[in-house]
Amino acid sequence: MKLQDEVALLGLERLQSSAKPGRVRGSQLRLEPASFESVLTSSLREQVRRIIRGRIIAGDIVPGAIYSIPQFAALLGVSATPVREAVLDLGNQDLVEVVRNRGFRVPDLTEGDIDEVVQLRLMLEVPAVIAIAKDPPTHQLADLRRMTGAITASAQAGDLVGFVENDRDFHLALLSCFGNQRLVAVVGRLRDQSRLYRGLADTGPLMDFTREHDELLDAVERADPGAAEKVITRHLKHARDIWAGRQEDGKI
Question: Are the beta carbons of 69 and 103 closer than 8 angstroms?
C-alpha cells in the first residue's frame, strides 16, 4: 500500500467505539466510511496527530478508555511509529495521557475545566479579533474565505471531524493576522483541550456554527470591530452551551 493510500485510509475512515472506561479491545472498534480530506502535504506523523486530535475533539474517542497504539496502527493501516509519535505529541499538549506499556487515554473534563478554558479564550480571542477588525488583513481575506467554504462543505456533509479541523484552521489563521504567534499557539492548545464540539452530531447545529464564521469574517472585512466583538463572543459562548447540552434548535 502506497503512503497516500495509507493516509487516505487514515482520513476517510471514521473511528467509532462503544467502549466504556478500561482497555479497548480490537473487537470494540470499527471503521465506517465518512468524509474527511487528508492533508497529504504534511508528514505522516502530523497527519496522524491531526486526525487523532479531530477524533478526540469530536468525541469519537471515549474519555477514560485505554487505547492501544498497535491496535490503532493496525486499524489505520500504518506502522506503530507515526501513531506513537503523534500520541506523544498530543501528550505534551495535555490532550491525552500516555499509559506506559498499555497505550493512551483521553482525560475526562469537568464543567469547571470547560468554564476555565472558555473564559481564557474570551480573554485572549475577543481583544485580538477587535484589533484585527480595526485593520483588516486585506491580503489574507481570500484565504480566510476559502477556509469558511471548507467549514461549510464539512458541515453540509455532516463530517464532524473535518469540521473540527477546518474550524481550527480558520480560527488560528484569523488570529495569526494579529501578529502574535505565541497567542496562536496558546489558543490552539486551549481549543484542543476543551473538546467543545462533542454535542454537534447533527448537520443543523454545524450549519449554525458555519454561519457564525461567515458573520465574523464579514465583520472583519468591513472593518467593524463592534460587530466582530459580538460575533466572536457569541460564537465561543454558543460552543460552550452546546457542550453543556443547553442547545435549543441550534441557538443559545
Answer: yes
Note whether 23 and 105 are within 8 A (CB): no
Q: For 232-247, what is each residue's pLDDT tens digit?
A: 999 998 877 765 554 4
Task: Provide CATH code, domain 111-243.
Answer: 1.20.120.530
Length of the chain: 252
Domain ranges of the chain: 3-105, 111-243
pLDDT at 175: 97
Distance from C-alpha of 184 to C-alpha of 176, rounded to nearest angstrom: 6
- Assigned CATH class of 3-105: mainly alpha
CB neighbourhood size of 62 (10 A) = 21
SS3 92: helix
Give me 49's grid cell. 496527530
